[in-house]
Amino acid sequence: MVSLPDNSAAPAIEVRDLVKSYGGVTAVSRVSFAVARGEIVGFLGPNGAGKSTTMRILTGCMPATSGYAAVCGLSVAARADEVKRLLGYMPENNPLPEDMRVSEYLHYRGRLKEISRKKLGPRLDEVLELCDLKRVRHRIIGTLSKGFRQRVGIAECVLAEPPVIIMDEPTIGLDPHQILIVRDLIASLRGRMAMIISSHILPEIEMTCDRVIIINQGRLVAQGTPAQLRREVLGEARYELELAGPDTGLAALLAGVEPTLKIAAVAAPDADGFRRLTLTTANAAELGEPLLRVLASGSRRVRALTRLRPALEEVFLAATRQGWEAANAVPGNARPRPGNEPV
Ligand SMILES: Nc1ncnc2c1ncn2[C@@H]1O[C@H](COP(=O)(O)OP(=O)(O)OP(=O)(O)O)[C@@H](O)[C@H]1O
Ligand SMILES: [Mg+2]
């Protein structure tokens, strides 16, 4: 295990007012966030949002134009060598040496990470087991499938048990079975290492991460737990209801349960006379029980009532759309539309 610097109360990652410009393109624009020790954070954003750029700055691979980035309280710009010892980094399109064998490569990386010869042997066995690489340990990396190469990258990342892991799209190109393995692997490291993981696979992020940060066109547009983001970005709860009986007085009945409760959509009745209604409300509290009480009385009948959980996709789309709209609300700040941003 890598020993931590004295200021171990500092967050695992801290970014303040980070800016990165590539000539005329501002890839990262005044981004600030922190990742606590042991926390797993999903880093989301459309293509070209600035995720890889932020990660490269954090790992000391590239300098920022301005702003502050620190790992375990150490400034990345001022103490890059020490910071590198605290990090496991899996870059985008993780380049690996084609002609080395898996265990040979991991052994070499372990020595570079200053793991003693005595500890390295048992640790390699552990990591090969953890990443399900035992059966390919003697294979030449160049002959491995993409999924196995990804696992070699992840194995290298966790090898020295650093307190902070940064993985740029670790599951890109993996089949669903391998995605599950990587998800379990990340979950098994929960609490032991802080992690920031970028991905476009939103259900995976939702299942693995404690918190999500969304950036769009270089700006941070939302952060929080998936539940907080649903509330803050979508701003409402939704219910789906299958109801038979008269329409008259229904709106008033719903308003009696919660004044902001509205009927958003009604489907035609089926053969049994049940219609599917979608209700929306600005109140995030659980309204299922009072709804059932008032609706199932009198001549109305309820066959089903479900609180709908919007997928993280909806939150992502709304947050990136809102970010774009906010940027364009400032006069003179003409930015390209989402989907038409610089590539
Ligand atoms: N070396 C570079 N030189 C010039 N511009 C760059 C360079 N690297 C990235 N950019 C630009 O910076 C912006 C952010 O790119 P970045 O790779 O950080 O995005 P990303 O969020 O990782 O996207 P993706 O999801 O496609 O991986 C893009 O507009 C990109 O074209
Ligand atoms: Mg990227």
Short description:
This protein has 343 residues and is of the alpha/beta class. It has helices at 51-58, 80-85, 102-112, 117-130, 146-158, 176-188, 202-208, 226-234, 250-257, 288-295, 312-329; strands at residues 13-22, 25-35, 40-44, 66-71, 74-75, 87-90, 164-168, 194-198, 211-216, 219-224, 237-244, 262-266, 275-281, 301-308.
Could you walk me through the main structural features you see in this protein, from its secondary elements to its overall organization?
The chain has 343 residues and is of the alpha/beta class. The chain folds into two domains: 13-231, Rossmann fold; 234-308, 2-Layer Sandwich (Alpha-Beta Plaits), CATH 3.30.70.260. It is built from eleven helices and 14 strands. The protein has helices at residues 51-58, 80-85, 102-112, 117-130, 146-158, 176-188, 202-208, 226-234, 250-257, 288-295, 312-329, and strands spanning 13-22, 25-35, 40-44, 66-71, 74-75, 87-90, 164-168, 194-198, 211-216, 219-224, 237-244, 262-266, 275-281, 301-308. The strands form three sheets. It has a six-stranded mixed beta sheet, with helices on both faces. Strands 2-1-4-5 form a four-stranded antiparallel beta sheet. Strand 4 (66-71) and strand 5 (74-75) form a beta hairpin. The longest helix is centred in the C-terminal third of the chain and has 18 residues, at 312-329. The chain is elongated. The two termini are 39 Å apart. It binds adenosine-5'-triphosphate (ATP) and magnesium ion. Magnesium ion binds next to helix 1.
